[in-house]
Amino acid sequence: MKPIYVIGHRNPDTDSICSAIAYAHLKHLKGENAVPARCGQVNAETKFALDYFKMECPLLVSDFYPRVKDIAIEKTVVVHQHDTLRRLGEIMREYDLKSVPVTDSQGVLVGIVTVSDLAQRYFQELGMQDLADMRVRYRDIIHAVDGKVLTGDTPDKFIEGAVKIAAGSVDTIKERVKNNDIVLVGDRHEATLLVCLEQDISCLVITGEGNVPDSVINKGKERNIYVMTTPYDTYTAARLVNQCVPVRRIMHESPVTFKPLQLLNDIKETMHSTNYRNYPVVENGKLIGLVSRDSLHVEKERVILVDHNERSQAVEGIEDVKIIEIIDHHRLGGIQTSEPIYTHQEPVGCTATIIANMYRRRGFDIPREIAGLLLSAIISDTVLFKSPTCTDYDKETAERLAKIAEVNIEEYGLEMLKAGSGIGDMTPAEIVKNDMKEFVIGDYRIMVSQISVMDTKEVMDLEDELIASMKNICEKDSFDMSLVMVTNIIEEATTLLFAGSPKTLIAEAFGKGADGTHIFLPGVMSRKKQIIPPLSEAVKQIKPE
Length: 545
Known about the structure:
Layout: E1 4-10, H1 14-29, E2 34-39, H2 44-52, E3 59-60, E4 79-80, H3 85-95, E5 99-103, E6 109-114, H4 115-123, H5 138-144, E7 148-151, E8 163-166, H6 170-176, E9 182-185, H7 190-197, E10 203-207, H8 214-222, E11 226-230, H9 234-242, H10 264-273, E12 279-283, E13 286-291, E14 302-306, E15 322-328, E16 342-345, H11 351-361, H12 368-382, H13 392-405, H14 409-420, H15 428-433, E17 437-441, E18 444-453, H16 457-460, H17 463-477, E19 481-488, E20 493-500, H18 504-510, E21 518-522, H19 527-530, H20 532-541
Helix pairs in contact: 1-2, 1-11, 1-12, 2-12, 2-14, 7-8, 11-12, 12-13, 12-14, 18-20
């Protein structure tokens, strides 16, 4: 069975990453195949925690849109571009195929050939002399007519002359048969066979049963001419020789192909606009297999959401998965599921608090490294217990985890927060997108980012660039407003940058003038408790611009 993905929100913070790891581990203890995942890069603070406790970063999942690789790709036999039509027919008959991919000697797809292509070739009135220009080898002739070679030893040599049927008088044969021709003859009279050889042909195919005179065999050896017999009559042998045409002469050279990472929605559109039975799947030019309209059903990925429950914050493609659980500590955000699921939400400061106590209630010990990550998440979300979101339950859980993790909460917490504070070499665009979450409040679509610092000035020195980037995001991604919380963890205060409209929403929510591009909010540290609720109330009071 496919694994269960445990994943947090976009632009993941420490809680989102660490809770995914811890809950996936708890699922493993219960015998379930769970994989921790993330939908974004880890920040400096989270990296510090992962490195400190020697834990790997979760699997990066950019989206859950179903792709070609997620459906049944059928393995198939192939033909080489130089294989004959007879070989193609044998393969189609043996495996009951309607189409066959064509590859070169390196396994690279060069075309595809169908039953209708083969039928069309059969009904074409092409003269046998056409084979002279098709790079047919003598071994192809031998194979096609089930030939018994009496003389000749260069099977890989290409045919140079035309293919003729020797019939009629000796004079007629002399007139029609030319140098290097391949001659089919049903007349076993010695004189007829010898006169054919005397024309310096390259190959003599004697049809029907019976013996070949020694004089003919000797003449063939003397002139270095292929002489072979076939059990088929001349008419049948002629048809079989015509099947020596290489597959490349009738194949479609530019078939519609798909790649493993292509979205199913995209290939469905392509299939709708074309009418092929099968479509090759290739990677780096090499054939992987075939897909058809009948193979488009895909088993949905099973996903557990942690630290969020709003569609706008979830990984792209969430509508194409089967959500089986939600573990969160935020407001209900309206994600819809097709059937009842297990949800666990508590009004605490951190998702990790909930998960840590799930271990205890279910009778599982928490390993040191998992305890360390859970503790890191609580410290991060509560800003070392200074955030108004912090509860006594968070503190009690953190103290218990610190003992297991063998760290001093205050010392480790300050070290971790310091590692994650500041902007380092982040660009204005990266600062604006740091820990970014999207909210739909009333009729407004608002993004709220947050960056924790110990020196507000280093961020505010970039105010003009930040506002420009925020306006760009509003325009590009159709947000009404963009807010960036610059939270000083030492001063326990936030400078709130804002762009977009209506600015009256900011004034109404926080009771401050909104003529500029930022306001100072002492004591504000929590997006969840101190930014979103006032905005939600303010929306009710103002009229849309």
